[in-house]
Amino acid sequence: MRTRRIAAVALIFSPTTTARNNYPKGNPFVHHHTLLFHPTHFSTNPNPTDVIAITNRQQLQKLLLEKAKTGFHKLDHALSLFHLMARFRPLPSVIDFNQLLTAVAKMKEYSSVISLYKEIRELGIPINEYTSNILINCFCRLNRVDFGFAILGIFFKCGCTPTVTTFTTLMNGYVLEGNTSDAVNLFIRLIEYGDIEPDAITYGTIMKGLCKVGDTAMAIQLLRSMQKRNYRPNVVMYSTIIDNLCKDGNIDDALRLLSEMSESDIVPDVVTYNSLVDGLCKSGRGKDAARILSYMTERNIFPDVVTFNMLIKALCMEGRTEEAEGILQIMIRRGEEPNVISYSTLMDGYCLQGHMKKAKEVFNSLVDKGLEHDIRSYNILINGFCNKMNIGEAMDLFREMSRKGLKPTTSTYNTLLKGLLRVRRCNAADHMFHEMMCSGLNPDILTYRILLDGFFKNQKLGKAVEMFRSMQDQGIVPDFVIYLIIINGMCKAGKIEDARKLFSTFLAKGLKPNVKIYNTMISGLCKKALLDEAEELLLQMEGDGCPPNDVTYNIVVRAFLKRGDIDKVKILLQEIINRKFSPDAFTMSILVDLLPAEGEDSELLKMIQSLVPRESSKAVSQTLRE
């Protein structure tokens, strides 16, 4: 009865009936290559130097036990050992072969495990539940949970019953695929059936999945459910939830969980404290982060390089680079060697302050400390020089990293493109863009934002239009920022008809403009004195559920002031008053200059006085008297 219920669970949660029905007759995984993989070619004459001399079973079992824990250095060594085992008479047991499969799986050679499984079956070795669990894990790691479920058929054929490990592995497969909801459903159904009791690893797997998709509240509920079922959560579970709470900005909730751990005699580790330190630093609670550090050292849990790097980053973000450099010295004194990330973070701090000489000194010191520059350290320095508009230094670094065999990233190119366009080197930017494409890197949407913004600002409308077409050819869908850049660029260039067409295209696609896009379009119409159309667009905003803001009204008021339409200005000012907005300084100066011509007791004067603070109203009256 128990086996039938478990089989029912497996049937319910096997991802697709179609997939099951498409498997070949007999053992569905004898022909797995036709389903998923190209064959893994095993050497039939393995190099003797790759085979460790095994003279008896005791040596074989000792080696397999060791490799099951550590894995092999090379796949060929594992395959050579398999061929040696296949020549043993009598053949080694399934336990020995399971250890070999475990060792290969530790190397993340999952497809090779599946191929070896086929050969083990051809040798006639009877498999057990451990063999099947290893195979399920490999399919799940290859994002094929559907094949993992199909393996359950082998369980029942061999007279084996799936264990909690089997279902936990399948749940983990769902989590790896990003299907946490399916993992949760399988978990709930197992509890409802009651035949297989989830263990700590099962709970941990589901918690990890929930946190991965940002459902921290559900992860906490699961923690409480686990406690009610008399399971003791471990430090990894608490740390996973605390980390997510910190990432969500719920630092106080994370600190309460830390207190709960202490009350339950669950000792936090350095990973737990690192999450809290990082969260507190990012929330601007440096003093609380310092207290956490003191608290952990009192309990003989000492900061590691990750902890120190977080502190260095927090200090650099606050502009306290000298203190950050002091942290490096503390690390060294404590025997915790700073890594490339430590020095790169300090470099970034100096770059943010514009201290490029100091940043370059830190960069150059890496080699003396036995560390190698990585792509991140180059990107930081290139970005720093581009921000200081020192493109020559940035380009020198770019060429240097290429000579060292470091491949530039999309971020590297984006930084250089932005820097080149800021100093009006449009041709060089165009050349850099084509170099990027030829290198095999695909531009992202940020690349096109930079190019479009730069070409429009440099009055290169033709190039901007060319880039917009290139972007569409690449299959990149324009976002709000792209439309804003192009509409703004067209309006500033006086191409109001082109801007209007693009705005209409935007609407035709069912997209809803935000207030910035509306303001940009209204401003363009006002500059062309198309005030009736600008006013229509102002009214359209409300209908589209995008209420105008104070910027919108300032644009329109100034346009009607320029035309001398005081009646329309009064209507708009009344709307500003009703919405509790305020004219900006430029608009107010135009209004004040207009007042003497309109008379001291005018309705306009009363409106203006209601829009400014009392002391400013006196100044307006004084202006009139003068």
Ordered list of secondary-structure elements with their pairings:
Layout: H1 2-13, H2 17-21, H3 32-35, H4 57-70, H5 75-86, H6 94-106, H7 110-122, H8 129-141, H9 145-150, H10 152-157, H11 164-177, H12 180-193, H13 200-212, H14 216-228, H15 235-247, H16 251-263, H17 270-282, H18 286-298, H19 305-317, H20 321-333, H21 340-352, H22 356-368, H23 375-387, H24 391-403, H25 410-422, H26 426-438, H27 445-457, H28 461-473, H29 480-492, H30 496-508, H31 515-527, H32 531-543, H33 550-563, H34 566-578, H35 585-598, H36 603-611, H37 614-625
Helix pairs in contact: 1-12, 4-6, 5-6, 6-7, 6-8, 7-8, 8-11, 11-12, 11-13, 12-13, 13-14, 13-15, 14-15, 15-16, 15-17, 16-17, 17-18, 17-19, 19-20, 19-21, 20-21, 21-22, 21-23, 22-23, 23-24, 23-25, 24-25, 25-26, 25-27, 27-28, 27-29, 29-30, 29-31, 31-32, 31-33, 32-33, 33-34, 34-36
What percentage of residues falls in helices of 4 or more residues?
Answer: over 70%
Mean pLDDT: 83
Beta-strand percentage? under 5%
Distance from first to last alpha carbon:
100 Å
Separate helix tally: 37
Largest sheet: none
Structural class: mainly alpha
Number of beta strands: 0
Radius of gyration: 34 Å
